[in-house]
Input
Amino acid sequence: MEVYKLLYINGEWVESETNRSFPVYNPANGEEIGEVADGNRNDTKKAIEAAAQSFKTWSKLTAYERSSYLYKAYQIMMERKEELARLMTIEQGKPLKASRNEVQYGADFLLWYAEEAKRVYGEIIPAQRRDQRFLAIRQPVGVIGAITPWNYPVSMITRKLAPALAAGCTVVLKPAEETPLCAKEVFKVLADAGIPNGVINLVSSANPEEIGEELLSNKAVKKITFTGSTNVGKLLAEKAARYVKRISMELGGHAPFIVYDDADPVHAAKGVSLVKFLNTGQACISPNRIFVHRSIAEEFTNTLIERVNKLRAGNGLEEGVSIGPLVNEAAIEKVDDQVKDAIERGASLKIGGNRMIENGLGKGNYYAPTILSGINKEMKIFSEETFGPVAPIIIFDSDEEVMEMANDTNYGLAAYVYTNNLSRAMRAFEELNFGIIGINDINPTSAAAPFGGMNESGLGREGGREGIEEYLETKLGGFSI
Ligand code: ADP
Output
């Protein structure tokens, strides 16, 4: 078992002031896989101080210099792809193939922002006075406080760090307490790429609130970037408001998946089976409400059941496993509660609906891939995010009705539409109040494209051209000549 009682501050792996550590478990079997340092507020202060000092030099490098560090980090991450993927499966639980995909996605951000670093342009604005010139420049915001979740433990870090570093910012990161080992390995990649001391700092902790408090209240931190639950996001946003601190947030989702009557029900069902059970449903863009037109509902449901029947749950290191464990016991309870509530209120259970304690999976957090039909608005699952392997099917009759139901949520992250009618596709794309829409497509994400939510799903965008904007401040110069 690895013991990492270390934090990364000012370019050094150091002990926490507390001298305490906390355990990390493999969700596939409940075994302890490591111990990490339990950082506290003072450790965070030191990390912020280091980031503030190094900002003075990092922000003055040329974009080309910063870009070269990111290229190097990309190369190192690709070299370590397999070991990073294995660690991710052991620590987070997703099947190895999915872990490899995530490491690739994580590395893609390093490469994309190595390139975008060189495209931070300013503007010359025509003035109304003949003797005046306006010049708008873009400068790095300063020290960034980043807080990341456990469900995508590598890519959620690079999605924040790569654009921040490209822009010229320096960072203090607090990773999720469930997956600090992945964070350590990402930091090793960045450190081995030669990123100067103090530019990136890592404070793992079992007390996120304490670390968050320091990141929010410390004047040297100019912006908080957060990915996690809507509840915690709101809490952080409230506190950030006290200091008028910039925030960007990627929060929960409640994605509708609409299958219109002209769509191929078999193709659509295959799509749902792939995207719904990805990461065992623990993704903020996971479909949470599957709307199917009445005329094709039977064929769609039968195909989905067939597909789900073929999914094999287990330890993600084993060949052929397509469903990993949920992150912890609380996650299982939440999923089970939503399923029971739906059944009590009249939903019909098509498959699954139970913990998987048979097949030797008793010690892991496994919940059977589940399909429910006959879902209505009274059920919790209609309005609450599930974050688990449950596909709830809702039948609709008209385009107007489905659009109203799909938009009837406080969330607004991802939505999916299956149709072969171009006008319908375009209307749905325009009318859905979500930030990311997959049209006959179950993977509308890329380091090159803007990702983010509307309403209570978040603020700001990550990835794409937009991602770096979150780390830049615009400064106007008015010159009299
Ligand atoms: P999830 O429900 O997916 O675990 P959370 O929002 O609880 O999502 O966690 C996402 C990240 O936010 C994690 O890094 C976690 O440690 C952190 N976090 C949780 N509560 C707080 C808080 N009160 N202040 C700061 N960070 C927090």
User: Anything to note?
Assistant: The longest helix spans residues 96-116. DSSP finds 15 helices and 21 strands in the chain. Residues 147-149, 174, 176-177, 208-209, 212, 228-229, 232, 235 surround adenosine-5'-diphosphate (CB under 6 Å). The chain has a mean pLDDT of 96.
